[in-house]
Amino acid sequence: MELKTNPYFRKTVKYIHLLLLIGACSVIIGFFTIFTTYMIAKLSGPPPIEIPQSTIYYAEDGTVIGESHNGQKRYWVNLDEISPDLINATLAIEDQRFYSHIGFDPKRIAGALIADFKAMAKVQGASTISQQYARNLFLSHEKTLVRKIKEAFYTIRLEANYSKKEILEGYLNTIYYGHGTYGIEAASRYYFNKNAKDLNLHEAALLAGIPKGPNSFSPFISYDKAKARQELILSEMAKQGFISNEEAQKAKSANIDFAGNLGDKQGTTAPYFQDVVNTQLKSKIGLDERTIELGGLKVFTTLDSKLQKVVEEQVKKTIPENSLIQTAVVVMEPKTGYVQALIGGRDYQESSFNRATQAMRQPGSTIKPILYYAALERGFTPVSTFRSELTTFTSDDGREKYTPENFNHKYADDDITLMQALALSDNVYAVKTHLFLGMETLVETAKKFGIESDLDEVPSLALGTSNVRLIEMANAYSLLANGGKSVEPVFITKVVDSKGKVIYEQEKEAVQVLDPDITFVMNHMLTGIFDEKLNGYTNVTGQSILSKTTKTYAGKSGSTNMDSWMIGFTPKLVTAVWTGYDQGKSINRTDERQFAKNIWVDIMENALEGKPDQIFKPTPGVIGVNINPETGLLATKDCPVKRYTYFIKGTEPTEYCSEPKANSSDDEQPLTKDPEKSLWYRKWFKWID
Which family does it belong to (predicted)? Predict the structure, then answer.
């Protein structure tokens, strides 16, 4: 019987043909399925890789001062910002054929199936880095068929739309390393307090072993398990040619220095300052809460970390620990408005209320430089005089009376000059000036200085009885310090999103809003609080801290029953200090009234230590002459006490102090070029001795 006619042969051939047909169809269907799946994945486009990331806050020198993480720490760094040892360690232990497979590793899958079959249990995983990345981004970790199918599709979609470099970078930035740290940068900072790019071999191998089971292989949970896995990884790296056997052995025996959970402490730097930054991210830049907390922003601030530390130390040194008195400090760079240091209270943990930016307090005599700027603008000079004596001011209708008092009830009972009134903080002189100019003048001038708080047009406004914020006063004095250019307090210089795009950058230019000549004259008069030549019926207000000063400062102190202020500056630095009680309790003790001044001088002296003395440079429109402080006339040998004083050109005195002092009343003193202004107080107030 021929073979071809043999029925068994024919049946066998038929089965073979059928098997071949089935195989061919399977191959075709498989190929078509794979091709179709790939095309669907390709046409679907790259999946959106939007993962929560911590927003990082930087000081002006680039150091990290804080982060927002809601209990999780997440960062994103480029692959070239990650240690090559960490990358190689991860590939060696997690996915040796990462660069050759298309998202799945058939050899590893087969090996895992055999291992599981032999053990009759799930003992070996086969997930590639691509699969793990897909799971981390889009899926839960439940073990269901539906989840497996979704994971496969997302894996194909990643492989179809992203390069291997992008997938590896994404994986290393999203994998969980335990203790709330996601991504290698967060892990590196948490475990070793260094950036991922700075990891050495033995540190990299240890971190690469944690993702397999953070609760088992974290060195803070089980050092022995973590160490054993590190050594396994180092052996694998040597086996695969990433490192030599000698390097592996050296790394295995290297001492591991952990940072503990140091990363958790980073948010404590300048907490009041950081609160203001967060507020401005919302109100000024327009970012929503979720973007700020989880958007992976890089926020570059104006904080000078060293100066911030100086401020905190001086406050702690000056105010006794058992005292209930509070304080707030703002330090600004006047040229730019950059806030370089800020505290809003003595202890953020006890009270996060920011007394520098939120509290409304009476500024006392620190308002006077603004008043006297307005006076100089309207024809006053440093030697314009009013009589310093107890005076009652009565409204024109006779219904209201106001009697301002000087500190310790001391008065000259004689005419005094503007420059001496400022240095001695004479309240009667201030109120007379305020009423002479018109009460609306100070309100308008304060707005020019950037004060936005509402001010009452009352006689006592000259003594700072309307509430303002410390940050406003610091900004107002910055206008004086920078020669009269408008600035505003700046906390943020730049914001970069998670993709590296700059979404905000500070670019506002300063505009000249004050007269530079008048501003210089005002600044020079403000140096008088530290000049004993201006002592008169009382000492200059800076006398108590004069021995501590080694630089040329301009400034003004201020006090009310419940508030104590000191604001002073150089051309490069402005510091404003407030002290007082939250409950509105009076400051009765003499030492407590000195806290603000002592904090201020210690901050300025520490901040400027080793730097050359910065003086205010005269402007072209001023002229300086020697003045006798007592008379306000040109000094001669008959009047040996003299102070070099600046005037707007053409307004300097021409009489000499050897001449008899003219007896003129306040009403007859020509203090303004506007004759209608000189009659203002007669229309609304009469002065009664």
Answer: In the N-terminal section; belongs to the glycosyltransferase 51 family.
